[in-house]
Design brief:
Order of helices and strands: EEEEEEEEEHEE
Structural class: mainly beta
Helix content: under 10%
Number of strands: 11
Distance between the termini: 37 Å
Length: 128
């Protein structure tokens, strides 16, 4: 299984950007799909998650209301729509996937320690 993240770029504060994560092997049906980001000099940070076992979408407080996760099952692609971007959103964004059997707590998904697959990352730079 491979995850291919794309869509990053240089934008100005207040702009929008949509990231894509294409998943080979049609894994979306049973896999939780998440977005993480890592800013220079900082630890990796949870952004959002589509959780399959309960069909819910979760967001970090820092992006809630500005970012939206969606998916196109026909294309096996998950999207991260980012609106009202801020300079502090500057980071490399990664998508990740893990089979969702329903046994893991949300906190474990947020920590990022149980994912089976990671994309290569796409850089988002937001200028002020």
């Amino acid at each position: 299984v491979q995850l291919q993240a794309s869509g990053g770029g240089l934008v100005q504060a207040g702009d929008s950007l949509r990231l894509s994560c294409a998943a080979a092997g049609r894994i979306l049906r049973n896999y939780g799909m998440a977005w993480f980001r890592q800013a220079p000099g900082k630890e990796r940070e949870f952004v959002g998650l589509i959780k399959r076992s309960n069909n819910r979408i979760y967001y970090s407080d820092s992006v809630k209301g500005r970012f939206t996760i969606s998916e196109d099952n026909a294309k096996s692609t998950v999207y991260l729509q980012m609106n009202s971007l801020k300079p502090e959103d500057t980071a490399v964004y990664y998508c990740a996937a893990s089979y969702d059997s329903g046994i893991f707590r949300l906190g474990q998904w947020v920590q990022g320690i149980l994912y089976d697959y990671w994309g290569q990352g796409t850089l988002v730079t937001v200028s002020s």
